[in-house]
Amino acid sequence: MIKKFKLYILLAAVACSTISCLDKMPEDSIPFDDAIKTVDDVNLAVVGIYDAFKNSALYSGNLTLLPDLQADFVYGINGNTNTYGDIWRWKDILATNTSIEAVYAGLYSVINRCNFLLDRVDAVRKNTTDDNDLDQIDQCCGEAYFARALAYSELVKCFCKAYESDAEAANELGVILTRHYQGDEEMKRASLKDSYQFILDDLDRAAELLALDKDYDPATDGALFNNAIYFNEYTVYALRARVALYMKNWEDAIKYSSKVIDSGYYLLSSCTQNYTSTASYYKYMWTNDNATEIIFKVGFTIDSYGGRLGTIFFNYDFSTVRPDYVPAEWVINLYDNNDLRVSTFFLTYQTGYSHGLSWPLLIKYFGNESFVNENILHVCMPKVLRLSEQYLIRAEAYVSQSAPDYGRAGKDITALRTARYATYGGSTALSASNAMKVIEEERVKELYMEGFRLHDLKRWHDGFERKPQAQSLENGSKLKVEADDPLFVWPIPQHELDAPGSQVQPNESNK
């Protein structure tokens, strides 16, 4: 089949909602039986799926910020606006928390859109005879299956316990699984094992439908893949590698991350080679949302964008900065002197508060320059899948398998550091005594404030401790969280538990 790459016109952002996942039909939507009758309708439905990822409760907001903010990456600063304060204080996280509710609803909104399309598409296919149109339908279905898998992968990360083994996961709570937009599916939580299997099945379908129809040359066709705002065969592999890591399936984590790394379509962005006179390739990825190592990003335009990721780190009003949160000192101290990520991520400013704190603030999300030029601050295109994560996935899988391969894991860490350091000679020596410590620290330095920390601590069974730093809020700065604390798993929103006829079981954190 001829698979065609498509450039989608991204529509207006979907507003954040707190509807139950049981409530599917918006008041202004087209009735089910009258919708999606042509191939053009199918394509527009997929555009709507991509658009749903702009929701400010998802990658351009809560879903990215809250897991790192809840853990040990930042400190609330005296005088702040208390945005996300209940999440940061940890002990105040309730089932009625609107920020968590919004994540839950936003992800199920994506799922409902996918189900709506998949339920209607067979009727369109039966009335279609043109081969190109049939191929386009298959492409759209592949994208819908991937989007559903992506949304469910985030739900299990946030609202379920860590996956330890197939046997244990069979007895742990997963999420509500829905295959259809209309139907009599039971609204109760599946097991964690079945939830992950659902994700894998969707990824298998997506891989088949999005498979390339010809061999592409990385030297000439790389631009078709990297920096993509649409799903393709390699976004499937990248997510499959991440899911395998979370399932502790080291063999698959290595297999699928290697497919991405070895494809040649993606290149780590260098911190030492300049893209412009003022920005390295790596810095340009954060200032302009463009890079050869981006596997998938949520596409924004000046007229259609999601949340403002950088607001809580700056609150810049064109005069002063009044951040709600500042980076933890231990994170900044973790970077080597040669590590150029420091100057890309952090810049010291004097804050506009009466106490005048001067501190390295997170400039990673200050904003895309094109948006800043239009006086739209702190808006960045979320980079959902990046090549550097694939190196980190593979390195961790190499050292965690039954016969650890420290040599290959060291090569992956070396490749990443070579791209990020001013100079990095030799190789990274890993052994049983230091491998996980090195990899864990590298995940902190590379993926800082990209939404991984809480879930990493949960699957590693690590706790953390906060100790006060300069001008940090008293309530929340002194905190010790033990490994496997119930709040590593977010509570199921109360409205979902209380919905008429609900059979949804709560998490331990709901109690």
TrEMBL record:
CDD domains associated with the record: SusD
Signal sequence segment: 1-22
Domain RagB/SusD: 384-500
Primary location group: membrane
Protein name, per record: RagB/SusD family nutrient uptake outer membrane protein
Pfam families linked to this entry: SusD-like_3 (PF14322), SusD_RagB (PF07980)
Similarity comment text for this entry: Belongs to the SusD family.
Location in the cell: Cell outer membrane
InterPro entries: SusD-like_N (IPR033985), SusD_RagB_dom (IPR012944), TPR-like_helical_dom_sf (IPR011990)
The SusD-like N-terminal domain, residue ranges: 74-215
Keywords for the protein's UniProt record, in alphabetical order: Cell outer membrane, Membrane, Signal
